Amino acid sequence: MDLFSWLELIFIDYGYVAVFIVLLLCGFGVPIPEDVTLVAGGVIAGLGHANPHFMVVVALAGVLIGDGVMFLAGRIFGYRILRLKWVARIITRKRYIRIKALFTKYGNWVLFIARFLPGLRTPIYITSGITRVSRNRAPMITTPAIRSSWIHM
């Protein structure tokens, strides 16, 4: 059974809660493609197993909270978070230096582009918290990116 079919079955059985939890886990760096999760949630809503309007709200909340938790973890714990084993696997020293250089060169555009880079999204959000990107600016940058990625789904 492929990932899409598995997610579809889980989402039909457990509905909005399952969609929210899987998207939250995507934000935490679990290697489940967020796009496949969003499409599966859309399919079950389109088939009548969920309200499409409420599904959009649940999906947006799952994505923003997942990314927001990673951002806040970086902001609250700073460089100390890089010492945690699970974070150290995601953000190697070399990757951290590279992401920091991207922030220096491109600024907040890095957050916008991060929405489209599944393997780098979590490290970028943690690094943006560490480097003190504005708490108010981060959601203002990522929300249009989320919306633009959903438009062509």
Summarize the topology.
Blueprint: H1 3-27, H2 34-46, H3 52-77, H4 85-90, H5 93-106, H6 109-114, H7 118-130, H8 137-151
Give an overview of the whole structure.
With 153 residues, this protein is mainly alpha-helical. 77% of the residues lie in helices and 0% in strands. The chain contains 8 helices and no strands. Helix 1 crosses helix 2, helix 2 packs antiparallel against helix 3 and helix 3 crosses helix 7. The model has no long low-confidence stretch (mean pLDDT 84).
Describe the structure concisely.
The chain is mainly α and 153 residues long. It has helices at 3-27, 34-46, 52-77, 85-90, 93-106, 109-114, 118-130, 137-151.
What attributes does this structure have?
153 residues, elongated, mainly alpha, 77% helix
pLDDT < 50 stretches: none
> What would the average pLDDT be, to the nearest integer?
84
Strand residue content:
under 5%
Our count of helices gives: 8
Secondary structure class reads mainly alpha
Q: What is the N-to-C order of secondary-structure elements (H for helix, E for strand)?
A: HHHHHHHH
Can you give the helix content as a percent range? Answer: over 70%
Oligomer: single chain
Query: What is the CA-CA span between the terminal residues?
Result: 22 Å
Number of strands: 0
**Overall 3D shape:** elongated
Biggest β-sheet strands, sense, barrel? none
What is the CA-based Rg, rounded? 16 Å
